[in-house]
Amino acid sequence: MRRALIATAVFLVGALGVATVTWVGAAGSTAPPVPGVSVVHEPAVGATDVGPAAPATVSVAGGTLDAVALTGPDGAAVEGAPGDGGASWSTTADLAYDTTYTWSGTARGPDGRAVPVDGAFTTVAPADVVRGVLDIGDGRTVGIAAPIGIQFDAHVEDRAAVERALSVRTSVPVEGSWGWLPDENGGSRVHWRPAEYWPPYTQVTVTADLFGVAYGGGAYGRADVTSTFSIGRAQIVRADVNSHRMLVFRDGEQVADYPASYGLSGDPDRTTRSGIHVVTERFTDKRMVSERYGYDLVEKWAVRISNNGEFIHANPASSAAQGSSNVTHGCVNLSTADARAYYDTALYGDPVEVTGTDVPLAERDGDIWDWTLSYDRWRGLSAL
């Protein structure tokens, strides 16, 4: 009786994207069976709404891959690399949103027979793509009270998903937490604050792997952002309004003692706020205007310490009060020489600890009020 070899090809494509080819001998054959070759796609062939940040992978059991490629609609191949001794291949670059990608290539079993690697899938089409911007750029040196801030250009609904994509690495151990603040400038914002002031001279890397993250409501992250920066020397201003002095400490040593005038205490709108302020900006010349109090002036050597109009700056007009009484509209007034000397040392993120008034710095004062909260309360602002 003449023997015949019957070849049976079975392609099964299901939720796991498995294509299987099995070769078996005819009934009564004494030839040993050839092991099967199984090709698995992740994401599955035909999948839609695929996240573009996770690697796309094809792998083969019982064989190796040969000349695999994943291409977009323009025919351009996505960067990738083999793994598992040639038994798998994965993309090494992000995919694009709202794009169909197609596999091509072959898998080969031990007998050299080829099994096609094919199929396609489509990535998610966002209703909106939201940008996040870090407020401390690469290579900067900042003060010991500087929080890490990310400002989004739209509202973030799924804050927990975003927060899971954020990480902070430091050259020395530093405890800290992310906290979500009220939306500002049309979008959500999140800060990372250490439990206590940063250790001076710490190296910090913040990574926000935001591309492909679902923000909720059909919105997704536009791009990853990262920054590596340094914490500088530990400079702290201690400003007791009742002393009429402003003291500057650097790395634990007092380096300056300036006569000062603070906000007039009889008017709550003019009282300098008590609490930990943070230096955010410096101006050699700053125009200061108040319709209510009737002034329009340009002041020298102005260092912003809050968003409610509080600055440390020169003011020759209040020189008679500096060191003896508080007459300002909330700012810390110094002589021109002293203001210049302080201006030259100030860094973004330096703390200015104001004490002695009955009006506390609060959320209404805007921007950086992170240090007005205890660390336990701050951690309560995390979404995780």
TrEMBL record:
One of its GO terms (molecular function) is acyltransferase activity. Residues 235-355 form the L,D-TPase catalytic domain. One of its GO terms (biological process) is cell wall organization. Pfam families: Big_10 (PF17964), YkuD (PF03734). The active site is at H313, C331. Pathway: Cell wall biogenesis; peptidoglycan biosynthesis. This is Lipoprotein.
